[in-house]
Amino acid sequence: MSTPLSDPPSAPSRPPPRQLVLDLPVREARALEDFLPAPCNRAAYDAVLAWPDWPGSVLCLVGPEGCGKSHLAAVWAARAGAVALRARDLVGPEAALMRLDRARAAVWDDAAEPPDERALLHLLNSLAERRGHLLLAARVPPARWALSLPDLRSRLAAAATVAVAPPDDALLAALLVKQLRDRGLVVAPSLVDYLVARMERSFAGLRRLVRALDRTALAVRRPLGPALARMVLDELAALRDSDAARADGA
Predict the structure, then answer these.
(1) Considering the domain 32-163 in this protein, what is its CATH number?
(2) Taking the model in full, what pTM does it have?
(3) What gap in Å lies between CA 214 and CA 20, rounded to an integer?
(4) Angstrom distances, CA of residue 204 to CA of 50, 63, 132, 149
(5) Where are the beta strands (DSSP E) in the chain?
């Protein structure tokens, strides 16, 4: 068991000078072995790995930003040889079928109401004829999309839908370690405990924290430690308070 960290002294000190940091893309490890199963995502994990023995041709993973939907979608796409779809691929039935080509599997990450409902319906029909499959990863379940085509509504309403629940402390700690490692950063277990106890408790909050820790460590040219962690947590809390104040005043 790691030794808990005490809060750093609150005596005022001058913030360390910062250098300009470019916001470079981060390559996340998205193999199956990199996914962290937990009670909150176990149903989604098991549903994806059950392929090709799905109850129907469509599976929808639903959850908030950063919950691991994209990771699971990438795992499934690699296994199924799925074509990756974007909204621009659903601007018309011909465009959708051209993108699918001869594939029998497709994945639409960050799915939402399609620009052309007929395109998605034709895609579903084509996959069904081929005994193929479609995986949707969305923040809102298709049953809540404002769709006008009755056939499309009924097809998506019948799709298997699996939701990812909010994370517990154990998953937050494991994800914190993984996402920092993806950025080339290693932290002591005691510092992980310190951060988890004080961070915003959401997948999106975790991503913001990791990004801020990385950028701040680079900017001040210091390794991650309690003092830097406290500074980042205070800055993120101030931003949340400012956003809340603006929302109240709107």
Answers:
(1) 3.40.50.300
(2) 0.78
(3) 13
(4) 27, 11, 33, 33
(5) 58-62, 83-85, 105-111, 133-138, 160-163
